[in-house]
Amino acid sequence: MKNWTIKKRIVAGFAIVLALVAVLTVTSYLLLNQAGAAAHFMTIDAMPGLEAMSQIDNEIADIQIDVMRDLLAKAPAEHKKLRDDIAGNLRGGTAAHHNQPITAG
User: Fold this and answer.
1) 105 domain residue, yes or no
2) Mind listing the pLDDT tens digit for each residue in 27-57?
3) Which of 15, 41, 53, 105 has the fewest CB atoms nearer than 10 Å to its CB?
4) Residue 102 covered by a domain
5) 23 lies in which domain range?
6) Domain contains 73
7) How many domains does the chain fold into?
């Protein structure tokens, strides 16, 4: 390399830079494809599962609220109504009273 002319050195330097750019281009392309595959997995496979888990979590919270109301209820008629609501929630139904406050009396 000591005997190379300036022209050969400049050409070799640009060739090395072009080779590095080509390596970075290929690497970037491969990594972007992996990111695209991960995004596809999230939208197609993972999100429906997360939505289902969120819905189950909400239904469990609704049942816990109904159980708390049943424990705090004093009148037998109120106990029966709340237990019917709990049974409806366990069967997959929804109660219409979820926005009522929990009271001790």
Assistant:
1) no
2) 999 999 999 998 888 888 888 888 889 999 9
3) 105
4) no
5) 6-90
6) yes
7) 1
One-letter amino acid identity for 7?
A: K
Q: Smallest Cα–Cα separation from 12: which of 4, 24, 22?
A: 4
Q: How far apart are CA 85 and CA 105, in angstroms?
A: 19
Q: Count Cα neighbours of 87 within 13 Å in the Cβ-side half-sphere.
A: 6
What DSSP string describes 29-92? HHHHHHHHHHHHHIIIIIHHHHHHHHHHHHHHHHHHHHHHHHHH--SHHHHHHHHHHHHHHHTT
Per DSSP, 100 falls in state: S
99 belongs to a structural domain: no
Q: State the residue for tokens 């599962």.
A: 49
Which pTM does this prediction carry?
Answer: 0.47
Using CB atoms within 10 A of its CB, is residue 70 exposed (0-12), middle (13-18) or buried (19+)?
middle
